[in-house]
Amino acid sequence: MKRLFLGIAPTQTQNTQLSSLQAGVSVDGKSVSPTNFHMTLAFLGQLDIHQQFKLQHKLDILHASKALSWPKFTVTLDTLTLWRKPQILCLSGKVLDPNLQYILDECHSLLQQIGIKLPHHQKIKTAQAHLPQEVNFVPHISLFRKAKRLPVKHEALALTLSPEKIHLYASVSKPTGVEYQILQSWPLAEITDKKMLPIRAAN
Fold first, then answer.
1. What is the pTM of this model?
2. First-to-last C-alpha distance (Å) of the chain
């Protein structure tokens, strides 16, 4: 069994910017290693080898076809946010690009096809703004764990992610701590007409 998730990675320049933001705040938490910076799209939990291969096979089929490939998107993270219950301090943003919403919906559909249940907070449409934040999908990159409070002073940072690929990550426990390792990647497609989103794959 492997603990897996789908996500995207910031560029090396953005990693440096995030590291600078970390260094500029006073937090009583544990900083996330820059090698682990990522934005989760769908947390999959513990998958056995058969579920993992089935997921990878379906993503291989999707991204082998231009008509089915998931589209490129942008998302801006510009708010330093503290989630008190999981004690996570992160840089967060909002889902404004319809291409990103499309991918989130497709992740949900794909995982249902292979029998994986998403956590409740990942099932809620981001358009339901009246719901509490914790039950909406919030794009974010974690900066600190075991954080107790939001820093009073910090530098402003607006980070716009424009990923070229989506990655399948494994969370691997090492003596030095958890490492997020990329198992496989798939390219995102350039969609020039925002109205022409990919055809949804059949179940």
1. 0.86
2. 25
